[in-house]
Design goal:
210 residues; alpha+beta; Pnp Oxidase, Chain A; eight-stranded antiparallel beta sheet; two-stranded antiparallel sheet; 6 helices
Length: 210
Amino acid sequence: MQRKIPDSFIEYVFRGRRKMLERMLLSKGIKQEGYLGVARRQEIYLGFTRHNPVVISCGPAGINGSVKGVGFVPKQRYLAELKDLVLEKVRERISQADAVRLLLEEIYVEERLDFSKLSSIELARKHTWVNLKANPRATLVFYTPPTVSYEVRVDVEIHESGDIWEYVNGLHDLYHRAARGRDWSKTPVYVFKIREIYDNSPAKMGERIF
């Protein structure tokens, strides 16, 4: 029987992120041309620490830490459908505001996601890339000031083709409105399969929760 990812971690990494996107739309902090309002931007930037863990790897490039954006992986039965939807919207060049709405309505749906996995796109192909090709294990360290921190130990899959590779590249381009025709062959995708989770907050002091 598959172990269940702790609800406290899902609340932090997913529900908190979803609520942040909802606030961005409800407060009109995001419009067709982008973010507005200094205070709202600061709140958004702090909230995005849920999205940007430090990925710690060890291999031929040495011990390395790299801040990378991570996303969620659909359950297998939803992957092809959501991939096709994302690629359709990439071709349509929808606005960032509409991309956020799509995330909330179709992608960030709790029942459709496999929380035992996280994903990331490799844009640099430098130290992390060299290390993970040789040693496909890593640790993701999340920190949201002042006290929330999780240490997530993972096995790493590298995808350079296939549905998940297209899905993650498409989702990146959809939200960030990347230049049309960006060469995806240069941006492999990592799938982080969670093995262990530790709560590194001051209250828990590194207690293993998964």
